[in-house]
């Protein structure tokens, strides 16, 4: 076997400093996750419990097979906005009756589970994941519909939720709605467009318009139960396929529905997996707090792939990009990992060839980011960096094997694109707390603006205000620094979550398992024109 050696000295002061910086970031991350777990706060959680109801994550836990993991997605959605962290919605992948499912659960402790703009983005991202990976969708519903003060941002794009449900069903991907409480107005179409519907007795309320709206619109007097209660829908309208006596019974029935789906994975079970030879705890001390300092990504690879076994491809060519073959939890993967930040022409051509090979062999690709982008300068422009960088981006864009991305360090400029950033539709994208992503580094961006301002003043024959320049540079650097941090980016759903580096192997294993639920085939051509 080609087992990777390690040069990591866990007793070196640099390692200790890197580890301490990472632990500080993880503590901050845990605090923000705590805000999401708190939902609407103690007052509303207590009120919910007093009504005899389970919390959103308790419903998810009871739905899942015992002692199986739940890969929560976008837990920091809406971070940094006016809305509650988590966006009143829980989404993730978990195993139900042995079947990997995409699960969404409204959090009714946050404004009654009403949807805001970030809830919508989070739900649409979950639907994309379900469709790409053919995962059955289970919606645990208790929502008052749209958060009306933000309707202008929700109403028009919000119709995509119902469109997605019908497309999933048309693609043969099962959809299941379990209604625990209100599912009103547009929310009524979630059970209305799902393949299987379960409603809880005296709790579920599903109607296009509640009694007050009906009174205003038609003058008719009605009550919740006769208008949209679970028993009415089970006995009269036929909207409910199953009638549950309480929440636990509803979750039990949901599990039975999944058990009868006969939904199978597209591929055979993976090969037996041997854990890495090195301790994943050591991942905490690999990435420097200062991302200008390079680190060897092989040290990361050695701690996430099976048996630390890695067959490197073109190890002597384009050495700023490490490429090679490995297995992860028994699944074969091709890995592209930035070694020294900058991508040159050689790295770009190497990447394009490697991506083509992965497509020839139908092997998923894992991108480990730490790049400042493609190299600039006269020598490199004359050497063809644009066409070679375009070659790499072309290959990534037209590759048809599943892609996974992990942002470990920097992910700047077009290098973010070439390494399969969010705009290039990786099946999953996660970030470490050490990651940063922007059009360029804060100092470079501020410096560019300063140079442009100086040139403008000189062209007009005006004196240049050095004090104003220093203040501008400081302001811009601070702004770009804050906007490039993983909490900020994760809050906007530019990734699927910020993860503890020690969990990387587990998270990627769960993603690879989900990916292999759907069939896929690599591109055998059709990469467009490579500018040679």
Describe the secondary-structure layout:
Elements: H1 13-37, H2 42-50, H3 56-63, E1 70-73, E2 89-96, E3 99-106, H4 117-133, E4 137-143, H5 151-170, E5 175-184, H6 189-192, E6 196-200, E7 205-207, H7 211-218, H8 224-228, H9 230-237, E8 242-244, H10 247-259, H11 298-301, E9 311-313, E10 321-328, E11 331-338, E12 341-343, H12 345-361, E13 365-374, H13 378-382, H14 385-398, E14 403-412, H15 413-418, E15 428-431, E16 436-438, H16 442-459, H17 466-483, H18 486-491, H19 504-515
Parallel strand pairs: 3-4, 4-5, 5-6, 5-7, 6-8, 11-13, 12-13, 13-14, 14-15, 14-16
Antiparallel strand pairs: 1-2, 2-3, 9-10, 10-11
Structure overview:
- This protein is an alpha/beta fold and 532 residues long.
- The mean pLDDT is 93.
- The protein folds into 3 domains: 25-259, Alpha-Beta Complex (2-enoyl-CoA Hydratase, Chain A, domain 1); 280-439 and 485-515, 2-enoyl-CoA Hydratase, Chain A, domain 1, CATH 3.90.226.10; 442-483, no CATH class.
- Helix 4 packs parallel to helix 5.
- The longest helix has 25 residues, at 13-37.
- Helices cover 41% and strands 18% of the residues.
- The protein has 19 helices and 16 strands.
């Amino acid at each position: 076997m080609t087992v990777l050696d390690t040069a990591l000295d866990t007793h070196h002061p640099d390692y200790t400093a890197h580890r301490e910086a990472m632990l500080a970031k993880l503590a901050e991350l845990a605090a923000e996750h705590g805000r999401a777990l708190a939902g609407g706060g103690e007052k509303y959680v207590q009120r919910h419990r007093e009504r005899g109801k389970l919390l959103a994550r308790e419903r998810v836990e009871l739905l899942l097979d015992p002692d199986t993991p739940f890969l929560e997605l976008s837990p920091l959605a809406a971070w940094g906005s006016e809305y509650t962290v988590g966006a009143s919605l829980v989404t993730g992948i978990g195993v139900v009756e042995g079947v990997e499912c995409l699960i969404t659960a409204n959090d009714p402790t946050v404004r009654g589970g009403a949807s805001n703009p970030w809830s919508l983005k989070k739900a649409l991202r979950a639907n994309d994941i379900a469709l790409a990976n053919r995962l059955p969708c289970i919606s645990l519903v208790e929502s008052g519909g749209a958060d009306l003060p933000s309707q202008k941002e929700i109403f028009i794009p919000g119709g995509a939720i119902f469109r997605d449900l019908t497309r999933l069903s048309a693609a043969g991907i099962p959809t299941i709605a379990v209604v625990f409480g209100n599912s009103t107005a547009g929310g009524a179409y979630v059970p209305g467009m799902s393949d299987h519907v379960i409603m809880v007795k005296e709790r579920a309320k599903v109607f296009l318009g509640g009694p007050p709206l009906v009174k205003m619109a038609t003058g008719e007097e009605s009550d919740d139960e006769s208008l949209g209660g679970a028993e009415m829908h089970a006995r009269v309208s036929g909207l409910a396929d199953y009638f549950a006596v309480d929440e636990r019974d509803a979750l039990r029935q949901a599990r039975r529905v999944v058990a009868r789906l006969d939904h199978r994975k597209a591929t055979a079970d993976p090969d037996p997996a041997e854990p890495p030879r090195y301790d994943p705890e050591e991942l905490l001390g690999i990435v420097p707090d200062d991302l200008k300092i390079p680190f060897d990504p092989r040290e990361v690879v050695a701690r996430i792939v099976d048996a630390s076994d890695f067959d490197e491809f073109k190890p002597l060519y384009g050495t700023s990009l490490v490429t090679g073959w490995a297995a992860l939890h028994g699944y074969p993967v091709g890995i592209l990992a930035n070694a020294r930040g900058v991508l040159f022409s050689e790295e770009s051509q190497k990447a394009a060839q490697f991506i083509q090979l992965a497509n020839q062999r139908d092997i998923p690709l894992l991108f480990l980011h730490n790049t400042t982008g493609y190299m600039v300068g006269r020598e490199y422009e004359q050497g063809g960096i644009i066409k070679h960088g375009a070659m790499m981006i072309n290959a990534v864009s037209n590759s048809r094997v599943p892609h996974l991305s992990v942002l470990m360090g920097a992910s700047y400029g077009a290098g973010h694109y070439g390494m399969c950033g969010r705009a290039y539709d990786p099946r999953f994208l996660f970030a470490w707390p050490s990651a940063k992503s922007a059009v360029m580094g804060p100092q470079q961006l501020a410096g560019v603006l300063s140079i442009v301002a100086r040139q403008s003043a000189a062209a007009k024959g005006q004196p240049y205000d050095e004090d104003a320049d220093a203040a501008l540079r400081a302001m811009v650097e601070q702004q770009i620094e804050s906007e490039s941090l993983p909490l900020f980016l994760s809050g906007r759903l530019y990734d699927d979550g910020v993860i503890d580096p020690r969990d990387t192997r587990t998270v990627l294993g769960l993603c690879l398992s989900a990916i292999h639920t759907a069939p896929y085939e690599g591109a055998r051509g059709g990469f467009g024109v490579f500018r040679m």
